[in-house]
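REQUEST FORM: STRUCTURE PREDICTION
Request ID: SP-0412
Submitted by: Lab K.M.
Chain count: 1
Length (residues): 139
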Amino acid sequence: MNRTFHSRTRWDQLFLTLIITAICFYMVWEKQIILATVLTILLIIMIERIIHTAYMLTTDNKLIIKRGRFSKVKIIDLELIKDIQLKSTTKFGSFYLTSYVLILCKPKEYIAITPANPQRFIEAIIKRKEHYIDDDFSE
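STATUS: Completed
RESULT:
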């Protein structure tokens, strides 16, 4: 059974979307239609990427990272994943700005993703990897 995890919308993505929207409205107000059109296209791509980002664990032990319809799909074999960690960014007071999942695939190849529920995502990958190892030994 395939398991899909959706991406969490981060505060910096929302902030950038609001800033570009404000600049786009200002360009329309000032009758700068070409710049407004370019910003509108950029805004559509950003919103589509925020909404349609998903991480899928397949039954054939692959992690599929989809970052929207306009981006290339990244497929990673679970056997290539060497380490997976829950990381956080800068701490302000008693809270962190953003938490993310850091995946080490090959030496010096890292992938950072932000699933909506990072702990369940990590547990699902570990469970799939353990099941995959058990299947190899049972043969």
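NOTES: Strands lie at 3-6, 53-57, 62-67, 74-77, 83-88, 91-92, 95-96, 99-106, 109-113.
Reviewed by: T.R.
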